[in-house]
Amino acid sequence: MQVKDFEKQYRKKFIDTFAYTYQEGSKVEQLAILAEMVKSIINENWIATNQRYQANQDKQVFYFSMEFLPGRMLKSNLLNLGILQDVEKGLKELGLDLEDLAKAEVDPALGNGGLGRLASCFMDSIASTGIAGNGNGIRYRYGLFKQKFVDGYQVELPENWLRNGNIWEVRKENKAVTVRFGGDVQLVPNVGGSFDVVYKDTLNILAVPYDVAQVGYQNGVVNNLRLWSAEIPYGDEERFNLEKEREEIKKITEVLYPDDSNYDGQLLRLKQEYFFSSAGVQSIIRYFKKFDLPWSQFPDKIAIHINDTHPTLCIPELMRILLDEEKLSWDQAWEITKKTVSYTNHTILQEAMERWPQDMVKTLLPRIYQIILEINRRHIAKKIPLYGEELTYRTAIVSQGQIKMANLAIIGSHSINGVAKLHSDILMESTLNDFYIMYPQKFNNKTNGITQRRWLQLANPELTALLDETIGTEWHFNHTELKLFKAYQNNAEVLEKLAVVKRHNKEKFAAYALEKHGVVLSTDALFDVQIKRLHAYKRQLLNALHILHRYLELKEDPTIAYQPRVFIFGAKAAPSYSYAKSIIKFINALATMINNDKDIEDKLKIVFVENYGVSLAELIIPAADVSEQISLAGKEASGTSNMKLMLNGAITVGTLDGANVEIRDYVGTENFMTFGMDNEEVEEFYRNGNYNARHIYETNPRVHRVLNALIDGTVPGANGEGQEIFDSLVTYNDEYFVLKDFESYITTQLEVDALYKDQVKWLQMSLNNIANAGPFSADYTILRYADEIWKIHPYKGDHSL
Ligand code: 26Q
């Protein structure tokens, strides 16, 4: 479209919609009109993509995830359509700024953290690699809570993200399905010698899909993300005149559970899980039936992938439909189900494993319960002769009054993968070893990835421009080409340009920190970043203790030549996780003390950003010099901020945990700052039970001084929290070995200081990180899923990999 046409259309569309001129409109309205125009381009490709899939009867993957964190979509859609620059120009002619309009979009927080963001990176990569794929999730009325700090404490506010409507969704009322809960189920013998399943007194809920286009990168592909909303069925309004019943239905898709690593067995959560699993499976069945193929070909046309155990009920749901509605035999249905479903595990923590009380499942989902019991019975009967009772019973789905979702997911699928090499090894060798013995061929690794489009091209346009002028633009389509950048590591001019890019990005963040938090930052300081959910195992506390250590040192001797640093934190704590909230309060108290201490000047600053999410990540990551990846070895399944920060030239200070191990392998030990115990050492402590945190406190003078500062009133306003943290470390023996790794951490941080002072060396390390980040493109991860698990071939567009 010509710029002139664009302007004309924009003016007209605005007036047609609002009956006043765009100059009088709000940013939200100006954005809405732009989005309408973008959608009309997208929709054509969307229809064409669907027609192609249908005509070719392509195999499709359905990615079931309880969470998606897509971030704002305007610029990402423009980039992927290949019209970002043109639209920017057109808007300028109209006197509008694309950046302003982009910021008027809400950032849908329909997820907690890593798992949800991964799902969205995957959606982008599935479309961009030309794979026929769909997302399946929940359209929560309220997203993850908005975080505010009040006197340094986290306060949670509701996130009413739909207030102005969602410009990218299309309500598909004609694709609604019914999901049944509760009631009684009877198996009534029929003339054919089998039986019919008769339901009585069920609560029927209408699942209405809202579809969101997933635009591929300059390849014409538009896939679908389908988010389900719970509504009262048509014609049932009479029945639902009771306020209470209406409320109950509305509640199902009302809020996202804000816990990301702690299992909390609430009935409503179980309802959510079945609701979107059932709706998704029903709509897949409806799609498959259009082809009029034998059921045995179902796995040749459909792959269902479950993102952690949250959608596991799609296994018994698929069984239910095949058995009860399509009248297949158990063996046929079971074969099809196993061949269709695959599962990714995202956690090592035992306390995060989902298990539901048997009685809850029985009451809420009587038919599904029967099917789960039968799956379990057959599993036990089949495996005891092979593996004996002890091992077999450890793999039971139903045990001690509980239904274990991971066990059901493994038994009912053909593939289970971890999300980084170390994580997958730990699953096979320890956490899920019993299953590994039974089904070694099901286990595999798929190291996570990130989309370079959002995390480099959109978030860091200046670095993108520098890469384009040095290595060309082929890397936009094939991210391993970033490797070409390595050839410039001794090029003074390129290093200088890299420094300028980093400085500009730091200036942008500094402007935000000043406006939002009133903190003045110097861009000469090293920007040290830890952004992730707040959890004890991620050890934000280790970071905080290091800062406190530096502070105490500087107070004692102001001449110490520490490299000035800005410590940036972004983290939400689950509302019920009180220890995590205490750490937030403690870090905020530390920030207030240090930022206002005249003796410290620019040597130390702390910024704990409020309400961390995808949009803030896009601002912070390009500004980072150091990436803090300091979880206790063996605890972080993968991590993905580690990849995003590396891609933007930050140097990792990290333990050998999750994907850090692979990052270090690619970038080389000389460009990665390793510290702390490895997984073996941690395991050894678990085996011998010899860890004694109090002993470290009593014998290590640095630890002693820092810990005393937690309880002697050094940090004003955090006495209670200081004491609580002290106790967790000393009295309760420091579950995550913070004190054990402390020395190694502060030593490594001193090395970081020294390296940073040698700017050429530092820039070379930074450049090497960028150049080696290509393999962590989610495009490659997705191609491996497609090839090895889903058995789907990418569509060969102009720029397929
Ligand atoms: C389960 C039951 C009840 C309520 C909530 C939950 C729940 C919700 C979300 C449990 C876990 C999550 C999220 C987990 C998560 O984000 N894990 C992270 O996944 C990333 C992507 O694979 C990894 O990089 C991280 O290492 C991992 O922590």
From TrEMBL:
Catalytic activity: [(1->4)-alpha-D-glucosyl](n) + phosphate = [(1->4)-alpha-D-glucosyl](n-1) + alpha-D-glucose 1-phosphate
EC number per UniProt: 2.4.1.1
InterPro entries: Glycg_phsphrylas, Glyco_trans_35, Pyridoxal_P_attach_site
Cofactor: pyridoxal 5'-phosphate
Entries under Gene3D superfamilies matching the protein: Glycogen Phosphorylase B (3.40.50.2000)
Keyword Cell cycle among record annotations: no
Sorted UniProt keywords: Carbohydrate metabolism, Glycosyltransferase, Pyridoxal phosphate, Transferase
Top-level lineage group: Bacteria
Function as written in the Swiss-Prot or TrEMBL entry: Allosteric enzyme that catalyzes the rate-limiting step in glycogen catabolism, the phosphorolytic cleavage of glycogen to produce glucose-1-phosphate, and plays a central role in maintaining cellular and organismal glucose homeostasis.
PANTHER family: GLYCOGEN PHOSPHORYLASE (PTHR11468), GLYCOGEN PHOSPHORYLASE, LIVER FORM (PTHR11468:SF3)
Family to which the UniProt record says this protein belongs: Belongs to the glycogen phosphorylase family.
The protein's name: Alpha-1,4 glucan phosphorylase
Species whose genome carries this gene: Granulicatella seriolae
